[in-house]
Design brief:
555 residues, mainly beta, 5-stranded antiparallel beta sheet, globular
Amino acid sequence: MRTIRPRIATLLLLSLLVAPAGFVAGQAAQEQEQEEAQLEQENPGDQAGEALQAFSRSEWITRNRLPYPGMSRPASAVAPEPGPVPADFPLLVTSAAFVDPGITAPTRVNNDLLPPGNGTNPWSQAEPDIDVNPFNEDNIVAVYQESRFRDGGARALNYATSMDRGLSWVEGSLPDLTQELGGPWERASDPWVAFGPANRVYYVTLDFNETNPANQVGVSVSTDGGLTWGSPVRVFRSELDFNDKEAIEVDSHPASPYFGNVYVAWDINIDPANGGPAQHLVVARSTNGGASYQAPLVLRIARTNIGAIPRVGPDGTVYVMWAGSGGSSGFSIFLSTSTDGGASFSSPRVIQTLSSQSVPFIRDGSILPSLSVDRETGDLYLVWADSRWTGVDQTTISYSRDQGVTWSPPRRVGNGPDDAPTFTAAVAVNGLGEVGVSYTSLENDPARAFGIDQYFSVSRDRGVTFETRQRVSPVTSDIRWAAWAREFFLGDYTGIAAGAKAFHMLWVFPLLPSPTSVPPPPDIIFGLDPPPGIPLPIPLAPFRLQSDVFFSSTR
């Protein structure tokens, strides 16, 4: 493990990597404040200097991000960018609307706050995440992108907050973030949310400009359960390298000696001028409720490190898990742990190998894993997409009973058709120790191509076996109605959270008629019973749909 001194001029990054392990002294924090103040004067985030007018962050990502399994396809296999949708565009619908009786019907929680514009997918939402207040299960916060750009990021990042377990919602956009709403940044992405003590909620974001290299990881905080939000607090800023795929976790275990600590993990894509291309997997912590963040620690430097997820066990142990190049299969899942509240971390080690194929024409976050910790026992549950079972990606699980030291052999979660891929899986553990897994499936499309449904599987024996899958979506829809992000895009991840008993699922799905032609937009849906304004069966006509994000709960 190494420490990055959090200098903003990332041309110095490689030389700084030789700093002693665990170096997060107060001097570094003071230097960061001085450098950030100077940088804001020289190159504020909302201004593209005259010398940088030709810069394009989306082109930089295409040119410099290293490929991983399922990411890079031959030219003949790349889906063309959609043009006007013909009137007879196929819509795959089952003969009757259906939701498993153990699942509540879906309800929409967003209201399309931004009108179409600025070259984005109109009314499009993507990449939902969700969390439940561990001290008040009535309090739920959902987060997602609003108005997705086709070449990366969104015009705004939104939240939808419920104080009555999903019966009603308050929606808004994060303040002081993107230029669309008066903030400094041209775009934002990768929303992720976590509850902490005292009704505090932490919303981590990737903030960047398309027309100049400035970008940062920032965290907005709510002190009233997600109803109102403060301005983003900078975790780490880069001027050339690109920060990506950040996630956040808070130690919400009262018995932990690090109760209230905030942990943010992400990868830094290193520019060739700084010694790249490569990806550095890093984690930073806050010990003062998100008022400031200490210097990020480097957990691993390699060709590829992506999809970091931090989690905290009941004793305060911090687990950071991600996918990366290396291991016997060439690509693996890594784990690093901290037993001192994030001051230092163990050397990363391979806990599972990956064999993911992804789904043609669909951007499905194929190699990105999901991790959850049982709040009572500390058991760890890991899910990901793997093709080892049937030759196409299937949702796969492994668990650890000894704080990540050993792991169970992988096993397939779903019991659908062998030739039907399942993807974008997420896992959570409820207060009963039951393990819930949500995922998207092509099983109701005879062609196994574009017809998607959402499914949920539950284990009541701590991940050893799973009951028959339950269908969550009321109809089969066509992912070609979704937002466009170089491929058809619902999100690189989806949301699931658990309370004392119920599991709450949030996902993107094309369902409702769109008021515009192309491309059809996603909306956010939360599941409860009965669904206000969405009768079942849902009448669907052969015209354009908007791609909606659904959230449903188990009964």
